[in-house]
Amino acid sequence: MIKLYHAPRTRSVRILQLLEELGIEYELETIEFNRPTESTYAQATPLGKLPVIEDGDVVMCESGAIVQFILERYDREHLLSPPLESPLRGRFLQWMSFAESTAYPPIGIAVWYTLYRPDAPGGAEVVADQKGRAAEALDFLEDQLGEGPWLLGEAFSAADVMLGFTLTVAQLFGVLSERHPRTQGYLARLQVRPAFQKAAAGSL
Q1: Which residues contact 36 (CB under 8 A, 6 or more apart)?
Q2: Global confidence as pTM
Q3: For the chain, how big is the Rg over CA atoms in Å?
Q4: Which residues, other chains included, contact 190 with Cβ-Cβ below 8 Å and sequence gap of 6+?
Q5: pLDDT tens digits, one per residue of 108-164
Q6: Interval 70-107: pLDDT, tens
Q7: Which end of the chain has less neighbouring CB within 10 Å, N or C?
Q8: Percent helix, strand and coil across the chain, each rounded to 5?
Q9: Peptide bond into 106 cis (omega under 30)
Q10: Which domains does the chain have, with CATH numbers?
């Protein structure tokens, strides 16, 4: 059975939602988030980070890698991931990476300076600059969203799970705004999914 080390308001909500979406049995260990001001590896998990899963002999962190691992091991019917031969596979991989590699980094920097280094010299300018970069990433998403309800059209996928956390943080920090009406509608659809609500309960 998968054991998930989870803390509210962290990327572990992605893994919790994914497990719920797939109906996989899991053990949840909820821990208190430690402010990473002294060390990046300050969390009370086997690897010092969040999220972390244990699955048999496998112990791993990094939310995107965990999502991919769970899909490969447990989503044999491709409920949340297009098979390799699917024409949607490329788009799926693009949005899986976009959520954490393009959209989140500037948001994360803005969050860091806002929550942990509010008195840093030039911090306000850094936050404004990074919010601008993040908004540009959401401009790209806004233009790329198709007519269907999800990133792959009618099919909900793990890419939507990955992006949901990113957009929720973007919304909380004022990056996702009226400038992105289609993206706001997309996030609203994500937020009413039962698995999202269970994962986010008391977390976001």
Answers
A1: 42, 43, 116
A2: 0.94
A3: 17
A4: 160, 163, 164, 167, 196
A5: 999 999 998 888 999 999 999 999 999 999 999 999 998 899 999 999 999 999 999
A6: 999 999 999 999 999 999 999 999 999 999 999 999 99
A7: N
A8: 50, 10, 40
A9: no
A10: 2-80 (3.40.30.10), 89-193 (1.20.1050.10)
Question: Is the distance from CB of 63 to CB of 19 less than 8 angstroms?
Answer: no
Q: Distance between CA 161 and CA 70 in Å, rounded?
A: 13
Element (H, E) at 29: strand 26-30
Q: Provide the residue type at 197 as one letter.
A: Q
Question: Average pLDDT, stretch 59-65?
Answer: 98
Q: Which amino acid is at 33?
A: F
Please check the confidence at residue 202 and state whether its pLDDT lies above 60: no
**DSSP state at residue 2:** E
Cα atoms found within 13 Å of the Cα of residue 26, Cβ hemisphere only:
25
What's the one-letter identity of residue 94? Q
Residue whose tokens read 């044999």? 76
User: What single-letter DSSP state applies at residue 100?
Assistant: I
Q: Which two tokens stand for residue 140?
A: 């790209």
CA–CA separation, 195 vs 201, rounded Å?
Answer: 10
Structure-token pair, residue 187: 């996030």
Say if residue 204's pLDDT is above 50.
Answer: no
Tokens of 56: 């048999």
Q: Say whether 82 sits in a helix, a strand or coil.
A: coil
